[in-house]
Amino acid sequence: MKERAQNLLKTIQTDILSNRLILPSLPEVAIRVRELAADSDCSVSVLEREVAKDAAIAARLIKVANSSALRRGIPVTALKQAIMSLGFNQVRSLVTQLAILQTMRGSKDTARLQGFVASGLHISALCHNLAAQHVGLDAELASLGGLLHDIGKLPLRDFLLQRVELSKLERLQFELVLHPYVGAMLLKHWGMTGELVQMARWHEAVLRETGKAEPDYVDVVIAANILHYGTQKGRYAKYAEMSIPAIIKCTSKSTDALNVSQAEQRMQLSQALASA
Cross-referenced InterPro entries, in alphabetical order (predicted)? Predict the structure, then answer.
């Protein structure tokens, strides 16, 4: 199985280089908004003009800004108002997530995609809440990584469906083994930061140990995955009786009423993103 998986990965890499397997592109608006929002000299008006180039994303951003998780007491009716209310960092994250969700919705496998998106958004919310408890981590970056960590499954499924010699079970097995590699390739292709690439590449390394007391972004997404899927059944059941370093590091902080409130708010935001 391992040798076959390695051979398939080599084929994927060759197909990408020769353009036989085309990786999906990140929408231009997300790329430009990420660049602008990271620029300390960027003004609200400049960012507003860039977001407005994609009317669907602009409308969805306003809708998300009006969600109960983000509402500031005054209804948001204009894009500029939404950007000022949310702040550049959150706009950068939300526009990227909205653009990726928009790209995902073009998939033909709608039934499976719904489960993929729902899981991604829940794990994204968990990543945000876990990272927010640790000073050295950016909760918005962790949230984006939570949404993107399984992104390699999308192009990989298309590739595996073309391999007629594989059974349905074999496709599922190869998807589980190979999607972290393909996800890292795709995020590099999109020009995402190293932290996001690493979250995609190593999120299935459940027993990963860095030797450091504080968690990093990979620890966060591993912990979020375990909390989302559980160890009672499924692919993480084999870890039920084990001590998982990422869980210990990420949940060592006390979970007080404020953290519970933050988790609930982030789930409301995820629901708003899903319906936007």
Answer: HD/PDEase_dom (IPR003607), HDOD (IPR013976), RNase_Y/CdgJ (IPR052340)
